[in-house]
Amino acid sequence: MHPIPAVPPYRVVGLETVGSTNAVALDHAYKGDAGQLWVVAGRQTGGRGRRGRPWASEPGNLYASLLLIDPADPARLGQLPLVCALALADAVDRMCGTHRLVRLKWPNDLLVDGAKISGILLEAAVVGEGRRAVACGFGLNISHHPELADYAAADLAGLGYRVTPEIGFGALAESVSRQLDRWRHEEFSGILTDWLSRAQGIGMPIRVRLSQDELHGTFVGLDEEGRLLLRGADGSMTTISAGDVFF
């Protein structure tokens, strides 16, 4: 694994192989780490997606998690997946030299021509003295991509962009730092507007898979907290906080 660039004021731990960068980050939190810590790995043996689905994590892609401790009032943490998705979308443009290459699928998937190029997983835990630790995990398909059962997938190399994981991490770390500063010090409405400007599928029929159900309707947009608004065939509006969207 090549040296990982420093990203002050954040600290960086670079590892060759881990089970999961999120798990390593949360382990640091349980041991009293103050946060502001990036964990970057060349390979994951136990990478996970949403709902515990396995995520292929072989060398050549970017695998990184940022540990935050008490990043915001708990009521605002539902906004964080959108902040992370917007940061990664901006980072992809920076590392590829493109303008608005990716579209965003709620809440935090990045798409290019309808194919998924990333995975973002946020995991939270309460650690010593009631501190809330959040691991923001990013996986970006740089050199290769997994074959997914429910989605088309792609990678930057296959799309014609020559990027290394080290360049990718530098762009990601800078973008995440900038978007987190916005989130902490400005109204969320600005981030929400930027997210919506990249949104895929507004006005389209979608289905949303929940933990115990599946809903069908029209993707109207997001509410002021970033929750999905789904209009049913009877005109009723449903607000959804978490789910998998399919077009």
Q: What does this protein look like?
A:
The protein has 247 residues and is α+β, with helices and mostly antiparallel strands. It folds into two domains: 187 residues, Bira Bifunctional Protein, Domain 2 (BirA Bifunctional Protein, domain 2, 2-Layer Sandwich), CATH 3.30.930; 42 residues, SH3 type barrels, CATH 2.30.30.100. 23% of the residues lie in helices and 32% in strands. It is globular and about 55 Å long.
The count of strands amounts to 13
Assembly type of the chains comes to: single chain
CATH H-level superfamily title of the largest domain:
Bira Bifunctional Protein, Domain 2
Note the overall shape: globular
- Structural class computed from helices and strand pairing: alpha+beta
Mean pLDDT: 94
- Major sheet strand order: 1-2-3-8-7
Strand residue percentage: 25-35%
Query: For the report, how would you describe the main beta sheet?
Result: 5 strands, mixed
CATH architecture of the largest domain: 2-Layer Sandwich
CATH level-3 fold name of the largest domain: BirA Bifunctional Protein, domain 2
Distance between the termini: 38 Å
Low-confidence stretches: none
Order of helices and strands: EHEEHEEEEEHHEEEEE
**Number of discrete helical segments:** 4
Name the helicity range: 10-25%
Question: What brief labels describe this structure?
Answer:
alpha+beta; SH3 type barrels; globular; 247 residues; BirA Bifunctional Protein, domain 2; 4 helices
